[in-house]
Request: fold
Amino acid sequence: MAAVIFQPDPLVSAHIPVEKYLAMYQTMVLIRRFEETANELYMQGKIPSTLHLYIGQEAVAAGVIAQLRQEDYILSTHRPHGHALAKGVHPRAIMAELFGKGTGACKGKGGSMHVGDIRVGMPPAIAIVGGNTPLAAGAALAFKLQKTDLVSVSFFGDGAANEGVWHESLNAAAIWNLPVIFVCENNLYGASTSFKSVFHVDQVAERASAYGMPGIIADGNDVLAVYQAAGEAVQRARKGDGPTLLECMTYRQCGHSRSDPRTYRTREEEDTWKLKDPIAGFRSYLLAQQLAAENQLQAVESKVEAQIQDAIEYAESSPLPEPAEVTTDVFKE
Reply:
C-alpha cells in the first residue's frame, strides 16, 4: 500500500459553497493575524514564556477542520493556536491564556502550548512531541465503542513521527480500525533538524503501509487540496473504514520558537516558500475564479482585525489568577 500524492479534483472544488470558501479564508486570516499580533505582544513583554507560531501553515488547520463537526475531537501539540482558532476556541480565551490571565482557556495555568476548549471538541493541547497521538486514538476508540460516527484528528509535526508512541498509536488505530486521522504537518524541520537527516524515507506518509492504512500526501499550502484530502479521510473514518495518515507538506515562515534564529536554513529557501504563501494564494484564487469580490475579502479582513483587537482588550482587562487557585482543577491521587 504505497503512499499516494493527492490531486484535488476541480469538479469537487466547483461544488463547494461560496460560504465555505469565505469561512476557510476567514479562518486562515484569523490565524495569521492572531499569530502576528501575539508575536508583537511577546516582543513588547506582554506575553510571558515562549511562543511556537503557526505562520505559514494556516491552510492545514483551516482545510482539515472545515471537514469536521463540533463534536469531533482534535488533539493538538505545542504549536496549537491555529488548530484552536479553526476548531472554534474563542480568540479571547486564547489571548487571555497567553497573557496568563484567569479568564484564559486554561485559567492562565497552561500558557501558549496548552490552549483548548473541550466544549468545541478540543481538549487542551499536549506540549510533548507525539504525546497527542495516543489520545487521538483513545478518543477514536471511545467513539467506536459508543457506536457513533464521530472522528478524532491528531495534528503533529514531522519530528513526532520518530517518537515511539507515534508508531504505537498508528498500530493500535490500524488493528482496532479506529475512526482517526493522523495529520502530519511536515514543515521540513523538527525544531532545527532537517527532515532529510533523520528519515530514510522520502515522505512520512510512506510509513502508513507498515500499518495497513492509507498514506496520503497533500500540498499543505493549498487549502482546497487539504480540504478535499481531509474530506476523503474523514468520510472513510465515519463509514467505519479505519484510520488514515495524511501528510501535508508545508513550511513555517518563522522560527521553531521565539528563541530560534533560523540559522539552519537559508534565506533563499525561506523566500521560495513565501512565494507559496497559503493565504495569498487562496486570496488570488478566490478573486480569479470570481468566487469573491475584493470588497468581500476586505470585509473579512476587517472583521478579523476587530476580533483581534477585542481579544487584546479582553486579555489586558482580565484579572490574574488568584494564588489560591493554583491547585484547582489539578488531579490529586
The mean pLDDT is 95. The first strand starts at residue 4 and ends at 5. The domain at 4-316 is CATH 3.40.50.970 (Rossmann fold). DSSP finds twelve helices and eight strands in the chain.
